[in-house]
Fold:
Amino acid sequence: MSERDVTIDAEAAWDAVLRRDRSADGSFVTGVLTTGIYCRPSCAARHPKRTNVRFFTDGAAAAAAGLRPCLRCRPDETARDAAGVAAAIRLIDSRDSLPPLADLAAAAGYAPHHFHRLFKRATGLTPAAYARGRRAGRVANILQENGTVTEAIYDAGYAAPSRFYAEADDRLGMTPSAWRDGGRGETIRWARAETSLGPMLVAATRRGICRLSFGEDAAALAARFPNATIAPGGEALADLVARAVAVVEAPGQAHDLPIDVRGTAFQEAVWRELARIPPGETLSYAALAVRAGKPGAARAAGSACGANPVAVLVPCHRAQRGDGTLGGFAYGLPMKQELLRREAGS
Structure:
């Protein structure tokens, strides 16, 4: 089997191996022809010579070529890890309160201390933080279905409203009533600026930027938040807009812009993982789904990228399809290609 037979970017795969990139685990395996073994990209063993390496889509493909799994990194356990995290997530989603760590670990098939590390590595969250996010997300969904605030709180599994309000402002950004009522009671200030990628809209609450988009205007913003007060930003927003323009012009540079965006727990996990992809590099929707805690939910990961309300600041342009093509982008593939080009050259 040759590299031509698999849809793997060999140059990018080798770079991931040299960096021992854990995020690439599960995307491919590294076959070493001189030793007859195959490894995870993150394997801690000494790197082989590039001329002795071939890349395979998975362990089955490597085994078919006559290779055996590495006893050090145990590449065939990648699927087991993903299945264990998925089993724990199903248990969390089935309960109104967080199951004990021992129960989650048992569902995943691991010892508690190992499971805790595995879960955080896969999702970016501890089990407790993930459960809180899921519960708050249920409140948001119920509110959007026109339930009352109190009913939504109890239906989502909170023992009392006080417990929800202790977490809600940080979690949802807007108050529960404002979330349900399209931003009622919130003031969102906006401004437009010219960039080399086209006219950009920046909108912010008192907490941070809630919308960064291209080709939109105040009318489009008002449609997203129909009951909020939409006001020109003026001088109060000038510094924030200037810093946002700087990020767009040099997207590979780290930024500390305040952001006020909220989604479901899964969406937020995907957005968090997007920010962890090195500038100029990409990750498949399937790999994002694994890292966000839902193995097999590649389509949902793509939808989460599409729902990203702050382009560039949350770098959804770093996501691509599993076959190596760029996939979609809200503002067109030429802009996505340009952002990646700028990052690669930074």
Summary: Residues 130-180 form one domain. Strands lie at 29-32, 37-39, 53-56, 68-69, 187-195, 198-204, 209-214, 229-232, 283-284, 319-320. The first strand starts at residue 29 and ends at 32. The chain has five domains: 3-75, 78-123, 130-180, 187-249, 265-344.
